[in-house]
Amino acid sequence: AISYVGDDRYAHYNNVTVSDVGTTWTSNARLYVGNGGSYNTLTIDNGGQVNVNEQLYVGSYGGRPGNNSTVTVTGAGSKLVVSGSGHFQRGPNNKFLVTDAGYASFGGSLNFGNAGVLHNDLSVTGGGQLLTNGFIFSQQYSGGDMLVSGGSIMTNTGNATLASAGHVGGSTYTIDGAGTAWTNKVITLNSKNCIL
């Protein structure tokens, strides 16, 4: 069945935390965080694990737009494992945070803002690890920032597209700190954007 954290345009401030070693939540189909509504959150910490057997949607996609929703994976042993793709889009100001040795993987591509909205952000810090198979950031319209720092590793086994399809610029991509790495097959970077 499809799983939701906030499934209505009036569904605000819904929060799910999956915490501690041995605690697992599995969605056997898609998982929506903020399918409409605002400030919905999914937090995985202290060794908890969330498995999504299809796609992850934050801020919705093809349904009701949602904004200011956040997915956080934090702490050693904490894992988010998505069999399909990840989508942070439709509504603005949605965030994906992988920090303090947390781990996240996607069997498909990870996509930010490619349904024509502003400022969806990605942050991989503090020794976090992120594995993707394709990466699209700010495909339409402007804004959105990506930060990889503090010895974190972001590995993309596919191609990366940074700003395309009418994007008007304004995104930054920051790779910072000893041991920090972001690897891709091919990176396509369009105008009015900056890699630091």
Q: Which spans have pLDDT < 50 for at least 5 consecutive residues?
A: none
Radius of gyration: 15 Å
Count of DSSP-assigned helices: 0
Sheet-strand content, in percent, reads: 35-45%
From the spread of the alpha carbons, the general shape counts as: globular
Q: Output the structural class.
A: mainly beta
Number of strands: 23
Strand count, sense and barrel status of the largest sheet are: 8 strands, parallel
What do these coordinates show?
With 196 residues, the protein is an all-beta fold. The chain has no helices and 23 strands. The chain has strands spanning 3-5, 15-19, 24-27, 31-33, 41-45, 49-52, 56-58, 70-74, 79-82, 86-88, 95-99, 103-106, 110-112, 121-124, 129-132, 135-137, 145-149, 153-156, 160-162, 172-176, 181-183, 187-189, 194-195. The chain has an 8-stranded parallel sheet, with no helix packed on it. The model has no long low-confidence stretch (mean pLDDT 88).
Topology:
Layout: E1 3-5, E2 15-19, E3 24-27, E4 31-33, E5 41-45, E6 49-52, E7 56-58, E8 70-74, E9 79-82, E10 86-88, E11 95-99, E12 103-106, E13 110-112, E14 121-124, E15 129-132, E16 135-137, E17 145-149, E18 153-156, E19 160-162, E20 172-176, E21 181-183, E22 187-189, E23 194-195
Parallel strand pairs: 1-4, 2-5, 3-6, 4-7, 5-8, 6-9, 7-10, 8-11, 9-12, 10-13, 11-14, 12-15, 13-16, 14-17, 15-18, 16-19, 17-20, 18-21, 19-22, 20-23
